[in-house]
């Protein structure tokens, strides 16, 4: 995948917003790669530097059940539309090549432990001196300063330290992790957001910037109203399972067929329609359920009543009734059901690309749609697949100078 292909467009379409931006990607695992993947989705030419012998750790995490040894499924999820170059940053000659790439890059992103990039000669101070317009983003568990600076952090640790686990699960059960690596992904999103803003700022100031992204900071920043309970009232929010402590009825209710449907009666205007949907207008007449505040206070009793009603009819009947009365609701989908959802199909979110080793693979595409902009994506790279190509296109290296840098990974090119 070359850069001109990455920004290929049909007649009448626009180039992607970050077309022409060069991003040097020193990241691995999830948070950093998710950040640079978002930039690639926006049209940036993202070149990922990987250690020659093994590459990103997620290439070797393990295969999904039934998948072949060459199927790098975990890696593929956060590395679409990038190019891979294999360089050993501990080797003086190859470190110099990486430094030369940074000299012509617009953006460098790294998520090493604090201090490692500096030891490898790829830190902000050194690179910004040779490239004053460089935008440099560091993503780490706890940031580049402070008492936790040197702590190791993976997503479950961030869910724990941020308080997210304390509010996830049922009231009398232990704290629970969210079933997706949101700490990683949210930090990556904030990284991409900050980088895009810095690119715009550079167009005005002509100066680069250093960006310090902390996974802990990022998770705390998105906790919203529940964190407001602690900030303003000094209270620890409790675990409520699938209930909403401020709304009722609001829960996941099992149907006669065994499926679960999530619903939320968001305000008093929804309440009468909900009572119509479940055939219980008598509930609408009860003073103790007339206002949202009263329903929230009586939510245990009300949820029990609603749960009993849902067991009387099929999933299809409930979905039709809730649709007809415009009640916020959804079937609680499995991942496979979510991918097969008719709205997801309409939005063409799931993309099929051809991987050099795995053949046809499916990936979730970018979740935005610009007018007159192609939303195509490209295959995740094989380790070192684009080493020669990148050294030629970014640095203009001739064949002899490239050969010495790539002798260890020729089989991957």
UniProtKB/TrEMBL annotation:
Keywords: Transferase. It comes from the Bacteria. GO terms for molecular function: CoA-transferase activity. InterPro entries: CoA-transferase_III_domain (IPR050483), CoA-Trfase_fam_III (IPR003673), CoA-Trfase_III_dom3_sf (IPR044855), CoA-Trfase_III_dom_1_sf (IPR023606). SUPFAM superfamilies: CoA-transferase family III (CaiB/BaiF). Pfam families: CoA_transf_3. PANTHER family: SUCCINATE--HYDROXYMETHYLGLUTARATE COA-TRANSFERASE. This is Formyl-CoA transferase/CoA:oxalate CoA-transferase. It comes from Paralcaligenes ureilyticus. The lineage of its organism: Bacteria, Pseudomonadati, Pseudomonadota, Betaproteobacteria, Burkholderiales.
